[in-house]
Amino acid sequence: MTDGITKEQVKPPSAAPRAALIGAMFLMATSAIGPGFITQTTVFTAKLGAAMAFAILVSVLVDIAIQMNVWRVVGVSGRRAQDLGNSVLPGAGYLLAALDVFGGIVFNIGNVAGCALGLNALLGLDVKIGGTVSAAFAIAIFLIRRAGVAMDRIVIGLGIVMILMTLYVAIVSGPPLGDALTQTVLPEEVDFLVITTLIGGTVGGYIVYAGAHRMIESGVRGEENVKEITRSSINGILITAMMRVLLFLAVLGVVAGGVKLAAANPAPSAFEHAGGEAGLRVFGLIMWSAAITSVIGASYTSVSFLVSFSSWIERNRNWLVVAFIVVSTAIYLAIGKTPVTLLILAGALNGLILPVGLGLILWVAARRRDLLGGYRYPNWLLSLGVLAWGVSLFVGWKALTGIADLWN
């Protein structure tokens, strides 16, 4: 399988498969919206209140700058991130792939646990049964003949379900919208650690490459499709941002009323306070949808980091995705709960992967026009990327601190 693409193979913008781009957008968005996303947003909203709106705004702007650069370079070059990394610095792509696959499988254990918790809240299923049933559902997607099309439709459908259900709870909880709007630009408190954590959780690790890899594997690539690629990269982040904002408003309506969330389970506590028993069931549906789409996204994207290294892997990629899900589920069932230490380590690695991977991408944009087919990269976009890379260095530094604390 070749990494590049010729001019004759590139489809003009009018022929770019819109359905494939929509699928890539939602894969990126739903990969970010997982159990950790829900828990983080709930905890930080309880901590900052309406000032969380400013943290969301800043993180979204940085996320857009990062994703626009990643999608543009991957899309125009027609090469996956690991292939670009090896072209810039021999061995860098293998390192990036190893970090992403390790982080992906550890987070997938947490995603399966999130599926189990979601079905427990929704249907009262035992957590081990819920985890197993959810894994079987994800595996079934990759065993059917047109797995890519099925995956796109599932993540789009469940993404819409999550947004609508969270909108319902946000309306029921009655958040102080005026205060939230004011503090979006004039916050009473600014917490940079919260902002960088949100950035790492949205575009860290494998997540930043999920949509871009899906896009080029669907056939959308090349300079002729730049406008579609750019629009899709922004829209993917805006979908994630919409979910973050709705979840923030849902929780804000609860905590603004003086409710103290349960420390052990803040997210379901917020939904139950907002909507009673119905609210708890809605939380279960949202949690399961978020977790199962993250299982799909983590598994698909992690294996996409391996396929270019071997033709055998390329031919058997769906079976490897199935194996990825099976291993994650088996570890979850064996442990019986989410392995907190491993999740902390994987989260720290996600923070480290972001500046390394983004640095390689920006080097290609600035210095390797040959990998972009002679495409002249816009200076304004490169400048935004460098600023975002500076932020990612801080995220990486906090990740190193987390690893050091874990080691000690």
Description:
The longest helix has 39 residues, at 266-304. Helix content is 79%, strand content 0%. It has 408 residues and is an all-alpha fold. The model is unreliable at 1-16 (pLDDT under 50). The chain has a single domain (17-407), classed as Up-down Bundle (Amino acid/polyamine transporter I). It has 16 helices and no strands. Helix 1 (18-32) packs across helix 12 (266-304). It has helices at 18-32, 35-48, 52-77, 81-88, 92-123, 127-143, 147-173, 177-185, 192-203, 207-217, 226-255, 266-304, 311-315, 317-335, 340-367, 379-407. It holds the Pfam family Nramp. The chain crosses the membrane at residues 20-38, 44-66, 87-109, 121-142, 154-172, 192-212, 233-262, 282-307, 319-336, 342-365, 377-397.
Which structural class do the helices and strands define?
mainly alpha
- Secondary-structure element sequence? HHHHHHHHHHHHHHHH
CATH domain class name: Mainly Alpha
In angstroms, what separates the terminal alpha carbons? 44 Å
Number of domains: 1
Globular, elongated, flat, extended or rod-shaped: what is the shape? globular
Q: Can you tell me the CATH topology?
A: Amino acid/polyamine transporter I
- Tell me, rounded to a whole number, the average pLDDT: 89
Low-confidence stretches: 1-16
* Number of E-state strands: 0
What would CATH call the architecture? Up-down Bundle
Q: Count of helical segments?
A: 16
Kindly state the percentage of residues in helix.
over 70%
The value of Rg in angstroms is 20 Å
CATH H-level superfamily title: Amino acid/polyamine transporter I
Instruction: Report the sheet-strand fraction.
Output: under 5%
